[in-house]
UniProtKB/TrEMBL annotation:
Signal peptide: none annotated. CDD domains: ALDH (cd07078). Residues 12-460 form the Aldehyde dehydrogenase domain. It comes from the Bacteria. Keywords: Oxidoreductase. GO terms for molecular function: succinate-semialdehyde dehydrogenase (NAD+) activity. The active site is at 244. It comes from Brevibacterium sandarakinum. The lineage of its organism: Bacteria, Bacillati, Actinomycetota, Actinomycetes, Micrococcales. This is Succinate-semialdehyde dehydrogenase / glutarate-semialdehyde dehydrogenase.
């Protein structure tokens, strides 16, 4: 079994705390690595190292910083297969899917870092009275990045481009359920010592990091409950917080769609990564005119999702990340059935090793059921029939979350109304579509702080103004 360590100031470093946690392969239930539980003393060391390194990193030219980040990204890219295997062993994602998301994460790191080359870090304007106003955007200083386990590599890389390219140094605290692939990213690291630091552990490391006095920004991705605590700690310390939290994303399926193609697209949105995506489709509102035909097609698509150990080539769906997550999913299905829902396929825990759960379709659901109101994070597609597109919009908007939403329709008036759903992103006729210019801030309890393109640079920098009065001599 591998033993993992922190990476601080360019050195692999033992934790100050003797307590250890274990990574369990969710497909086999075997232990694959042990690592420190984390401690405030580890965090102090890592933050101090980041603080020391920051002025030299900021003093490099932006071209130099970007070139170094790209060089690291290239090395990561060369190790995509190996990283996908590590992700599979630590959290169960099939390697084929893992590879494509890692490739997207590396592409995102490169593209977001390269935006620094055209970002206005220092912009002057002539004032009407003859003076000049100069707006300078400096790196905030030291950033903390705290990540979840569902896309271990991509979540880490996703936050780093703008933070590093703008001249910040960073301390990363990956999820305690998936530290293995993040450790590998640090083994491949090609940045000056102290620019990027790694502290392993659970809340014992996350909490002191999020509230640390010498942190200037925390970029947190995770659950709403932990996000509220991180937000409160940031408020107390008066540093910036970008919070990307959970969702309960709705889908509206209009009466005029290609039923089979849409059912297959909804199956993918509900079951890929075993439903463990913050923007997984978790509430499906289908127009009554096509509802039964849609459910038949969705059930067919669900039954094609072969589950198993993601190291095997033909597996489309891995296990849930752990027993706790499988229990949450199972409890939501039981709650729905007790309140009158019908399981159309799936819904049974299979025998044998691994935290597997089949792709499941349930109907006759309503908002009194936890499966329609709380985040599931599992391969469940709950379908509710609506009498009109307008009713679909109304139901889709009834949630305390507001992360993303998807609408399938050919009706131009309905497509125009899709933007009325409270969400950071609304996709029309293609889940997860869109280009790199995407900028969003989650609505409601799904988060706080805009990300994407220049918004990410706004949060990675602090603007200040120098005003030069006109020469009146
Ligand atoms: P989690 O909140 O349990 O943990 C996330 C991270 O926060 C982990 O590294 C954990 O150790 C750390 N943490 C926990 N408590 C903390 C505290 N009090 N202070 C500081 N750090 C703390 O979430 P999870 O189970 O790892 O991930 C799943 C959740 O993440 C889901 O709710 C999912 O929707 C969300 N998520 C959101 C996005 C997004 O972009 N909005 C993306 C992926 C996942």
């Amino acid at each position: 079994m591998k033993t993992l360590q922190n990476y601080i100031g360019g050195t692999w470093t033992s934790s100050q705390d003797p307590n250890r946690l274990t990574v369990i392969n969710p497909s086999t239930e075997e232990s694959v690595a042990e690592f420190p539980q984390g401690a405030a003393a580890d965090v102090d060391l890592a933050v101090a190292s980041a603080k020391t390194a920051q002025s030299a990193w900021m003093a490099l030219t932006v071209e130099d910083r970007v070139a170094r980040i790209i060089r690291w990204a290239d090395r990561i890219e060369e190790h995509t297969d190996e990283l996908a295997e590590l992700e599979c062993r630590e959290m169960g994602k099939p390697v084929g899917i893992g590879r494509s998301f890692i490739a997207a994460g590396v592409g995102g790191l490169k593209a977001s870092a390269q935006e620094a080359l055209t970002y206005a870090f220092d912009a002057s304007t002539d004032d009407p009275d003859g003076g000049r106003t100069r707006v300078i955007r400096q790196p905030v200083g030291v950033a903390a990045v705290v990540t979840p386990w569902n896309f271990p590599v991509t979540m880490v890389l996703g936050a780093l481009g703008p933070l590093l390219a703008a001249g910040n140094t960073v301390v990363i605290k990956p999820s305690e359920r998936s530290p293995l692939s993040t450790v590998r990213l640090f083994e491949l690291l090609d940045l000056p010592d102290g620019v990027l630091n790694l502290v392993l552990g659970d809340v014992h490391a996350g909490e002191p990091l999020a509230g640390h006095d010498d942190i200037d920004l925390v970029h947190f991705t995770g659950s709403v409950s932990a996000g509220r605590k991180v937000g409160a700690a940031s408020g107390q310390a008066l540093h910036r917080a970008v919070l990307e939290l959970g969702g309960k994303d709705p889908v509206i399926v209009d009466e005029d769609v290609d039923v089979r193609a849409t059912a297959e697209a909804v199956a993918f949105g509900s079951f890929v990564n075993t439903g463990q995506i913050c923007t997984s489709m978790e509430r499906i509102y289908v127009h009554q005119a096509i509802a039964e035909e849609f459910v038949v097609e969705l059930v067919k698509a669900a039954e094609a999702y072969a589950f198993g150990d993601g190291l095997q080539a033909d597996v489309m769906m891995g296990p849930l990340v752990d027993e706790r997550q499988r229990n949450i999913v199972g409890d939501q299905v039981s709650d729905a059935v007790a309140k009158g829902a019908t399981v159309r396929t799936g819904g049974e825990v299979p025998a044998g090793h691994g935290f597997f759960y089949p792709a499941t379709v349930i109907t006759d659901v309503d908002s009194s059921m936890s499966v329609m109101s709380e985040e599931t994070f599992g391969p469940i597609a709950p379908v509710s029939v609506v009498s009109s597109f307008a009713q679909g919009l109304e139901r889709a908007s009834e949630s305390s979350f507001g992360l993303a939403a998807t609408v399938y329709s050919r009706n131009a008036d309905h497509i125009a109304l899709a933007a009325s759903i409270p969400a950071g992103v609304v996709w029309v006729n293609q889940w997860q579509g869109g280009s790199d210019v995407r900028t969003y801030e989650p609505a409601r309890a799904s988060g706080m702080g805009a990300t994407g393109t220049t918004a990410a640079y706004y949060s990675a920098t602090r603007p200040f103004t120098v005003h030069i009065a006109p020469d009146r001599s």
